[in-house]
Amino acid sequence: MKDITLAVIGSGSTYCPELIDGFLKAKDSLNLVKVSFMDIDERKRTIVGNLCVRMLEKAGVDCEVVMTDDLDTALQGANFVVTQIRVGKLPARHLDESIPRKYDLIGQETTGIGGCFKALRTIPVIKHICDRIEAICPDAWLINFTNPSGIITEFVLNHTNVKNIGLCNVPIDMLDDVKEITGLDSDITYLGLNHLSWITSVKKDGEELLPSLIENGFSPKVMANIKDDGFDIECLKTIQALPSSYLQYYYCREAKLDHQREGDKTRAQVCMEIEEDLLKMYQDEELCVKPALLDKRGGHKYSLAAVSLIDSIANDKKDVHVVNIKNNGTLDFMADDDVVEIAAVIGADGATPVKVDKVESKHIINLMRVVKAYEKYTVEGAVTGDESKVIEGLLVHPLVGDYEKATKCFNELKEAHKEFLPEFKF
């Protein structure tokens, strides 16, 4: 059993009990010595933190608990730091989702122009967190769940010295769905970028099962936070892969735009309602378990992904996880410093990518290259405050592209989020 000192940055997130639930399930291998719950929102930090404390007490976990709004205090002695922040909170997400609609652009919190602005707001805060990690607990591992996870990890691994692995619950959900159909011993190849990923091979006893899965109309379950428009079987036959649910924004673009035009509420507004319902539940002093309503936020298996990754690092397990890390030659069509979402062996030294057979799909190769170019432009713009770099990125993004729409929407979102964009000129 390994002793763990954990700092949760953004602990007011209603997902936090999910994370603690994961640690409770792993208590035979991970011993929580200290947990620091840090959030700048006192109300949420207190409500969510108190539920987490009750969960720990009920499970008989005797650990030091710190609740604070001070980052430096939270990082003291930490060997693992989990970031799950939302700069500007859900009202900022609502702007990311609603303003693009005016310009016939998809408004989404992790991709397109909405995801771009979430990254632009988040990177300065993540930079500050990383600066303090380097100063206070330089040996700590940063496990980032903050969206857009791939872009945030792209920034951290190429612009800081922090030991970082980016994480998302999409891969574990997709892999489990396929294994449920084909068997736990099936050999699955998963690759892509965060929220732009595919299963490209499913083998069992040496036999390739992917074509028959596609022919029979199988596709992994769609995340709870995405309206399911399905994937056309002919589309799947064309790309010869099983796409993650976020690729519906690319392959079913008009349907997604129609939903957003017709919808009474943005997903952010729905999440605000769910969050308030959850916070009311969390205030019940008799509640000491994770409520089922939490699964409606779209974070299914979030705790399993996070805690099993930490377990693998802490206990040097050398098992395989799908994570966001530098490519380092794994995919021969991507640069070494490109952060990609791939399988890796996880141990005390971090992540070692699993070898991937040559990717034959030019569709996947080219779409990954284009979206990675957008991600790198976005990081550069966030770091330098150079608006032209952000616009260049939006012009190559498949969900934007149009200069007039991109610039008008950019200017409106920039003005709406100006308090969170310190690098930009106003």
Helix/strand/pairing category: alpha/beta
Radius of gyration: 21 Å
Mean pLDDT: 94
Percent of residues in helices? 40-55%
Gross morphology: globular
Order of secondary-structure elements? EHEHEHEHHEHEHEEEHHEHHHHEEEHHH
The low-confidence parts are none
Measured distance between first and last alpha carbons: 53 Å
Tally of helical runs: 16
Number of strands: 13
* Share of β-strand residues: 15-25%
Please outline the major beta sheet.
7 strands, antiparallel
List the helices and strands and how they pair.
Elements lengths: L1 E8 L6 H10 L4 E9 L3 H17 L5 E5 L2 H5 L4 E4 L5 H10 L13 H25 L4 E4 L4 H11 L3 E4 L3 H13 L4 E7 L2 E9 L2 E2 L1 H6 L17 H7 L2 E2 L4 H4 L1 H10 L4 H16 L19 H13 L4 E8 L12 E9 L2 E4 L8 H23 L2 H10 L6 H14 L10
Parallel strand pairs: 1-2, 1-4, 2-3, 4-5, 5-6
Antiparallel strand pairs: 7-8, 7-12, 8-9, 8-10, 11-12, 12-13
Helix pairs in contact: 1-2, 1-13, 4-5, 4-12, 5-6, 5-14, 6-14, 14-15
